[in-house]
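Predict structure. Chain length: 204.
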Amino acid sequence: MEDLVTIREKINQMAELSLFMLKTTFDGFMKHDLDILAGVLKDEQKLNDMERTITLALVEISKEATAVDKKKIMLLTDMVEDLEEIGDYIKDMIERIEIKIQERLLFSEEGLSEYKHLYTICETALIDVVNALKMNDENFAKRALCDPQHMESLIQKYRTNHTQRLMLGICDPRAGNMFLNLLDFTAQIFYHTTAIAKNILELK
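Prediction complete.
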């Protein structure tokens, strides 16, 4: 039976894979490359397999765990579930990006800039979480915990800007839902990332 140290290392690997998937999806988006996105979908299946394996191991350990270890196991289980959810949202993003590429839908320059800004915030938070896990350094977890209200205010601001661009004829209405979906999926990935950061601090 595996111990918590070994399982934590596997969770680190799962977080690193999630970050790689996020970065690669953004690369495929920017390059309009379907092959890049297809590779990420294979990684998403690998992430799902890791989630099942780690969760089963945690359940097995919990049967003989102390009260202190059971709390740790619950926190680790939550982290694994959040990482799996991140993979699900990345898969959702890929599905929308594939349609965007196939139908040759383009974002306005302003819309693209807004999405890139939101993505950068999300990626930075996930990088901090990966470093917190890899280096066992809670300072990175604290850095990842940006004010969620800031993310929410940005989403609302960019949604409003998008509507205004539609009214002015700047944005292609066909690409509108794609833009809004990417905003929402990126925000959800950010929220799951900050949830992991909170649990890392709880483990301390």
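Summary: The chain has one domain: 4-203.
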